[in-house]
Every structure is written in C-alpha cells, then in structure tokens.
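Per your request, structure below.
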C-alpha cells in the first residue's frame, strides 16, 4: 500500500498516511492506532433526551481516519475496532461493548463510511474545503443509511420516528464536525505540500 516514486520524481501522496515512510509495518501501526483513536473518540458522549442514540465524537473519528488512511487501511481499522468491541473490549460509545442494541447499524455504517471517505480522499476529496465538506457529508449519509434501518429494527420504530430520534438531533453536530474537518484536512495538506517544496 506504499506509494513508490522514481528517483527523478517527487513522491505522490494519495492520502495523508502516505506521508509516513514505510510499508507493511507502517500500515499495521496506522490501522491499530486508528482503531484506538475511534475507540477514544467514542468515549465523548452527550446523551440525547428521548433517543437511544447519543451524540459522540466517534463519527468524527471514523471520518477523519477514513480520509487520513485511505479506504483499505480505514476499512481494516474499522474492522479491528468492530471485531475487538464485539469480543467484549468496552470501547464503543460510553465504554460499552458487543454488537447489540440500537447503535449496531450505526457502527456497521461507520465501517462503510470510513471506506467510502478513504476512497474519496485518495481522489482528492480532502484537499479543499468544499471537497472535504462533500466528502464528510457523504460519509455521514452512509452512516445514517445503515444506522436508521438498524434503529428501526432494534427499537421497533417506523421510519418517521427513527428519523426523528436517530437523525434530526445529530444534524447540527454533524455540521460542526464537518466544518472542523474542512479546516483540519486541507490545512494538513497545505503543510505537507509546503514541506515537499522546501
């Protein structure tokens, strides 16, 4: 997964993780660190009155990991995160474990979202503010596309009720997380490109 360069060309970085030298060992460390980061951000929890799904920093962690690592490493990181949590390590939202309850669909959606965001980032989807906003919006949409049906099944809710408790309360937070990513990711690329020119 490393990006090779000929002696006469400047290395071409597809995602931010490619800036880090190395190959397989680098990728293993990045995948494990990314899974840990998502687990850490999942501990930032704000309960939503009337909803079984809380606001967490987890979605931001997932989308950031996806854009920084690219789709293969992001999918691997989320696979590790889900597998370890399913085995009982309490690093899902608020120190929970196991793939049960109203948030299972959201967790599975995060795996797909991380991969999608990684694929878009490798095509320049995180290089400008506008592109980053679009990339993050699509990632959030994927999380909801899987999470809402899971919430409907787990909670016995109709579509309207699931949207009311499982989407609407989170839109403002998603907008703030997207704005943060739109500032951080293009800024990081600006630093990388400046370092390559110096």
């Amino acid at each position: 997964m490393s990006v090779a360069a000929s002696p006469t060309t400047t290395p071409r970085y597809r995602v931010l993780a490619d800036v880090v030298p190395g190959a397989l060992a680098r990728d293993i460390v990045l995948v494990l660190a990314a899974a840990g980061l998502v687990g850490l951000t999942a501990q930032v929890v704000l309960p939503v009155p009337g909803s079984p799904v809380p606001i967490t920093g987890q979605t931001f962690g997932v989308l950031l990991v996806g854009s920084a690592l690219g789709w293969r490493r992001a999918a691997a990181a989320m696979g590790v995160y889900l597998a370890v949590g399913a085995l009982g390590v309490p690093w899902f939202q608020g120190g929970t474990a196991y793939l049960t309850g109203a948030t299972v669909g959201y967790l599975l959606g995060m795996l797909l979202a991380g991969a999608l965001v990684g694929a878009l980032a490798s095509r320049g989807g995180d290089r400008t503010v506008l592109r980053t906003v679009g990339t993050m919006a699509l990632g959030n949409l994927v999380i909801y596309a899987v999470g809402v049906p899971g919430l409907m099944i787990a909670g016995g809710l109709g579509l309207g009720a699931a949207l009311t408790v499982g989407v609407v309360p989170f839109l403002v937070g998603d907008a703030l997380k997207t704005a943060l990513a739109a500032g951080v990711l293009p800024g990081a690329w600006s630093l990388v490109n400046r370092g390559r020119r110096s």
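The CA atoms of residues 52 and 133 lie 27 Å apart.

Regards,
D.
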